[in-house]
Amino acid sequence: MVDQKILDDVFENFVNSAQIFKDREVLRHDYIPEKLPHREEQIRLLGTIVAPVLKVSRCSNIFIYGNTGTGKTAVTKYVLSHLETKAKMYNVPVKFSYVNCRMTGSEYRVFAGLSQSVGISVPFTGLSVDEVFDRFRAGLDAAKTIFIVVLDEIDALIKNRGDKLLYELTRINETLNKSKVSIIGISNDLRLKEFLDPRVFSSLSEEELVFRPYDASELRNILLERSKLSFYEGVLSEAALNVCSALAAAEHGDARRALDLLRVAGEVAERQGARMILEEHVREAEKHIEHNRVVEALRNLTLHSKLVLLSVYSLNKSSVTTGEIYDIYNELCGELGIGLLTQRRLGTLINELDAMGILNAKVVSMGRYGRTKKIRLEISRTLIKDVFESDSRMGRLINYKPKSFQKHMH
């Protein structure tokens, strides 16, 4: 019965200790608050653009962009839910569909989702994308409605799949008789234009809204508003609030990150049985979140990126060159019996890992011998070992001793 006693103590302590959270859901990023501070102007602008719907006219297509955590999704959902209420009052036929392209993945699934929102069911697989699109178009026209489609994180879809989906959607009104479609595209990538066919881009962005990052004082306000709902009174110290805002402002004014920091800091304080959330709890939370972010990033790397990273890991030197990495990568692919990428493609993968902060690749001048890239790990070896050991393919390669290592020892 000893174990039960331990758990009883844990649970009793938790129930009887100082209460930190009144409602932790308020700090999750999909929570849409009653009011959105510092986004009044964007709300008004978006409201103005979609208002024609209330007189049964199609509104312009809108393209919204800005960094992660600048309120794009929250503002869009906020405006559309108010529009929906008004449309019901005036008895205007409007339908909305919100799709997160990163979650949904393929064009097929995006169209299947859109079909469902106009009451047409499409099997999960088995049809061609064109067939699904045709069913969607027929179902939509039969619905006699104004249809507003929100494609969030649209960059994820375009970079993976190209812009066929957008091309079809921006042209769809030419073939509809009884319904009309408007698109709201939301992107975290400000360079999305470069990926898009210019014709598609000009028809998608009849109106553009740019969300700039929040500054530290705005983030502080946002956190203060949320903390009143999420924590008991007097729990959050002034210092913790200020540090959260400052850290998130430094990280491109990302409110989502600020809310995460605050929530995790609350959880750290709660676990320690503290009565108040202090600055040290926020610092602890930051380490925790950063660690999780890197672990997540490592797990989600493609096979060849993992092999590149493993090659640097296996060389176990303070810095290595692209040539050395390629030799080991070559051996590892041989071990797994998979095809090699070209050295040029490998260079691209190294640059991607550098951009993610997993490797550090810098060009060094070797005097008259020209220039070379020196590459080193930016994250701890133990972290790589921990993540890769639980990976079916990487696990057996983690202790690999390179054959060509001998010639790199000089």
Would you mind describing this structure in some detail?
Helix 8 packs across helix 9 (198-204) and helix 12 crosses helix 13. The protein is 54% helix and 11% strand. The protein folds into 3 domains: 40-210, P-loop containing nucleotide triphosphate hydrolases (Rossmann fold), CATH 3.40.50; 214-297, Orthogonal Bundle (Helicase, Ruva Protein, domain 3); 301-408, Orthogonal Bundle (Arc Repressor Mutant, subunit A), CATH 1.10.10. The protein has 19 helices and 7 strands. The strands form 2 sheets. It has a 5-stranded parallel sheet with strand order 2-3-4-1-5, with helices on both faces. The chain has a two-stranded antiparallel ribbon with strand order 6-7. The model has no long low-confidence stretch (mean pLDDT 89). The chain has helices at residues 2-16, 40-50, 72-89, 101-104, 107-117, 129-143, 154-161, 164-171, 198-204, 216-230, 238-250, 255-271, 279-299, 303-315, 322-336, 343-355, 381-389, 392-395, 405-408, and strands spanning 62-65, 94-100, 146-152, 180-187, 207-210, 359-365, 371-377. It is globular and about 70 Å long. The N and C termini lie far apart (61 Å). With 410 residues, it is α/β, with parallel strands linked by helices.
How do the helices and strands line up, and which of them pair or pack?
Blueprint: H1 2-16, H2 40-50, E1 62-65, H3 72-89, E2 94-100, H4 101-104, H5 107-117, H6 129-143, E3 146-152, H7 154-161, H8 164-171, E4 180-187, H9 198-204, E5 207-210, H10 216-230, H11 238-250, H12 255-271, H13 279-299, H14 303-315, H15 322-336, H16 343-355, E6 359-365, E7 371-377, H17 381-389, H18 392-395, H19 405-408
Helix pairs in contact: 2-3, 5-6, 8-9, 10-11, 10-12, 11-12, 11-13, 12-13, 14-15, 14-16
